[in-house]
Amino acid sequence: MSFTQLLIFFLIIQVIHGLATWKLYIKAGKQAWQAFIPVYNAVVLMKIINRPWWWTILLFLPIVNLIMFPVIWVETARSFGKNSNLDTLLAIVSLGFYNFYLNYVADVTYIKERSLQPRSEVGDWVSSILFAIVAATIVHTYFIQPFVIPTSSLEKTLLIGDFLFVSKFHYGARTPQTALALPMVHDSIPIVNTKSYISDDDRTTRDASWANKTFLPYFRLPGFQNIKRNDIVVFNWPVDTVQDFFKVPKRGFIKPVDKKSNYVKRAVGIPGDSMAIKNGYIYTNGKKNELPDRARIQFYYTVTTKEDLDQQFVDNNIHTQFWRFYNINPKYWDDPRLQEYFNKDNRAYLNEGQRDSLNVEVVGFVRNDDMLKFKMEPLLNKINVNLTEEEAQALRSNPKVASVEKFDYEPQKDVFPHAPGYNWSIDNFGPIYIPEAGKTIALNLDVLPLYERIISEYENNTLCVKGNQILINGEVATSYTFKQDYYWMMGDNRHNSQDARAWGYVPFDHVVGKPVLIWMSWDTNASGINKVRWNRLFTTVHGSGKPVSYLIPVLVLIALGYGFSKYRNRKKNK
């Protein structure tokens, strides 16, 4: 729905409201014309039903208004003496059209001084729950959203099990795109595991779907800061599909932007940057990217020992994930059928290291039966270990270690932009340009793979190639001007992160917010009271120096607040 369509829809609703209530306005001592004036009619209606004027604002907040409209329909009926359960049911089930019956058929009288107190305990309970949901939805949508770290892509900086508060107002809160959705949940309803929103996610039918006509246009409230290079950012995963979480979807299936899965990464490239990755390290505008001192980059390092590895060495020195090396005959490894076989049912995850005429050295995971089947020989003194630079240096000083060398990945097909001519790997990549709103680039078939998804998916143009010509919206294009800003998001756990190197740029309209506080941290691998990482509770996400926990000050403030509340209640009761 465009802004023009939204305005037309809004005006139609105002006409319907006026036709359904103008006589009720007169009976309440107001003028008939007041029922037809947009926004003003809502302010007047709040006076009629004896509710505060600011309820009008709630009627214009997406998602929140889905709760408020039924409340207003019921309150309108009760203001004219219709208090029965049947009246309440009819007001809600008829979607407010019960007002037409009250306006033209029923003989009703306005009750100016009606009691606003619920008539039963159930009514009181429902009222409390509804307004708790309204308040929580406003906070969740426009101010602060809770988020939990699900993967290790920022490991050592943010840990699996960290519970974050994500600020919506730093970069500006987005209004929801999906107008018909349940509050307080994301893309699915817990337990039943069904969609929490109404839409048609199939691209072949979605443009004609009535449900998708209810989508609201993109709008973001002003923020008070821009995304800075190296900020940690929560965003909607641009290529999300509920069909397969780990595969980049084609043009057949897509979710609304605000219902795509939430990801958290570091913005290592911002609009206007020229960015490249060399041997795993990021270079922006020709200079090596300097990360904040709290950031802990990890790579896989190849650790070679002087003797065969034993369990004691692993227990004493390896405290993180590692993979074994194997030798395999090139005639097996270079056969595409083997790769298809390994990919089927996740039978193996292997990457090529070194090779000679007799053997290919591969590293990763493989099932024992497949290892025997393809005559793979384990290397007993060599493993790949996920380490920080400091941990790698410490291992080099171990007398049992012969060498510790950073592992560099070979070019792979699953690296962006997934096109011939781009022989890139996750360790050696680019250079690329990070698009900036309003900037124009020269467009040709060589660079088109980099910007194809931006042009067609994120900026809603039709794109096709005929011969050597690129057509955008049916016209030959030799240049393209970007409509919004884009970012390059990567994890600090460089060899264990699915990030922009796999799926490309992140549009600004996908940005959710800025994580500001770790309020809880839960270690599933620990036991008892140690499951809580106490030193991480109430620590800030950004900043420099060692993170400081504000748990004690928070507990003191809670205790003071509780004590003051008890004191005030006791004083009232005297």
Write a compact overview of the structure shown.
With 574 residues, the protein is of the alpha+beta class. Among the domains are: 3-116, no CATH class; 299-406, no CATH class; 443-483, no CATH class.
Overview of the molecule:
The chain has about 575 residues and is an alpha+beta fold. Among the domains are: about 5-115, no CATH class; about 300-405, no CATH class; about 445-485, no CATH class. Helix 1 runs parallel beside helix 6 and helix 4 (about 65-80) packs across helix 5.
Principal-axis shape equals globular
Name the structural class. alpha+beta
Low-confidence residue ranges = 242-252
The biggest beta sheet reads: 8 strands, antiparallel
First-last Cα distance: 58 Å
What percent of residues are in strands? 15-25%
Question: How many whole angstroms does the radius of gyration measure?
Answer: 30 Å
Organism: Bizionia paragorgiae
Transmembrane segments: 6-26, 53-74, 86-104, 125-144, 548-565
Membrane topology: Single-pass type II membrane protein
GO molecular function: serine-type endopeptidase activity; signal peptidase activity
